[in-house]
Specification:
Layout (H helix, E strand, L loop, with lengths): L3 H47 L8 E3 L27 E2 L2 E3 L7 E2 L3 H7 L12 E8 L6 H11 L3 E5 L1 H6 L1 H9 L3 E4 L12 H19 L5 E2 L5 E2 L1 H9 L3 E2 L17 H9 L6 E6 L3 H16 L3 E2 L4 H6 L4
Parallel strand pairs: 1-3, 5-6, 5-11, 5-12, 6-7, 8-10
Antiparallel strand pairs: 2-9, 3-4
Helix pairs in contact: 3-9, 8-9
Amino acid sequence: MYSNDSFLYRGYVMEKIYKYFSYIVLALLSVFTVCVFILPDINDLAAQKTFSEELTGAIIDSEEGTGNMATEAQYYASNKNNHNYAGLKSWGILRGKNGELPKADPGAPELLSKYNSIYLADTSKKVIYLTFDEGYENGYTDKILDVLYENKVNAIFFITGPYLEQQEELIQRMLDEGHAVGNHTVNHKSLPLLSEKDLEEEIVGLDRCFNQKFGQNMVFLRPPKGEYSEKTLELTSKMGYVNVFWSFAYDDWAVNNQRGWEYAFEKVKQNIHNGEIILLHAVSKDNCEALNAIIEYVRSIGYEFGDVFELEKMARGEG
């Protein structure tokens, strides 16, 4: 039989074990809370910082003569800023007005065409193509997809690595509803600044993961920030990708500088042209709220939205 002292000692030990066990459980619950509620916010902030400068090229309104973004000389596109095969170029355009076509920097359209890349579709037709960049989810993509579905319009959604990992349900919906999912690289790094090995991992690495999840491969590629070189165009073309630039964009990715849906609507309305490839960012509240009005206006003036899958054939000179 156990003595009374032994029994009391065992009780004391068990009390200590239960006490420290409760501390351990509380600590584990605290860690779980941080992971569930705080880390996603940290990831969102990191993503917003990564996308705080989405385009570095010039977007210049012809009637104003000035851009709506601060632009430094070294960021002008094509041969204006660099004759080097591997040198960084940054896509920029001079907007037209009253339906006039925008003007890319001298030599840029020829360079894109040489490597099965595209920024403008068939300019003989009143057809427009929609594309969205998806660096991170800001809560608007579901509504954007609703509007596209209701209006029977498809688009290319260019996604990054974090988006692929975190938004499988939305991506599946894009595919199910007839949209194209394009490659915006794993980490949104400037392609001309990468080694060939790192460039391949940024692009093919994303495509490989996409294929594992959805059983498809990506065809369309949008270089992060619109930064490219002749070398990156050649390398990615040899990999089988079509680089898709744009003939209209504006500074819509700045989530802390949204100016109302009317601003987004007017910006697009003023820049309608044949064969237009529109770049919009899905993180923009303004774009989300203006999208239905944009689609209705485009159709009201005799334009239609084209099937984005046509862009591959156009870029490859097949149609």
